[in-house]
């Protein structure tokens, strides 16, 4: 349910899986390849919201959110109400709010799962328990 940056009719995708540490302030480094996927967006960050289907966080680009806003219906109202804009800091980190951390049961590490047009952020143990597929975790 997500689309990332479109520039010059070229679509970038969120691919692979990465495990990163989350610090006590809720900061986590977004994988460099994910940041590259949205580098052409005007907004330098990501949009996060609680997954309605899983105990994880969904992530998309601002360009995707703008595309949803242009649709003439109300089916995304709940998503817009829950969505939070997270700017990248100078090192490519974002802050995951306490509400999002609680929803996804995030502790010390987080697992970024590329889903093509979107990505998810999981507690690594919860993902491994809930998924039959065990991804190959890429290095930063």
Written overview of the protein:
The chain has 140 residues and is of the alpha+beta class. It has one domain: 3-Layer(aba) Sandwich (Chemotaxis protein chec), CATH 3.40.1550.20. It is 24% helix and 29% strand. The protein has 5 helices and 11 strands; from the N terminus they run E-E-E-E-H-E-E-H-H-E-E-H-E-E-H-E. It has helices spanning 32-37, 62-69, 77-82, 98-104, 124-130; strands at 6-7, 10-11, 17-21, 27-29, 45-50, 57-60, 84-87, 93-95, 109-114, 119-122, 137-138. The strands form 3 sheets. The protein has a 7-stranded mixed sheet. Strands 1-2 form a two-stranded antiparallel sheet. The protein has a two-stranded antiparallel ribbon with strand order 4-8. The model is unreliable at 1-10 (pLDDT under 50).
Please outline the helices and strands:
Blueprint (H helix, E strand, L loop, with lengths): L5 E2 L2 E2 L5 E5 L5 E3 L2 H6 L7 E6 L6 E4 L1 H8 L7 H6 L1 E4 L5 E3 L2 H7 L4 E6 L4 E4 L1 H7 L6 E2 L2
Parallel strand pairs: 3-11
Antiparallel strand pairs: 1-2, 3-9, 4-8, 5-6, 5-7, 6-10, 9-10
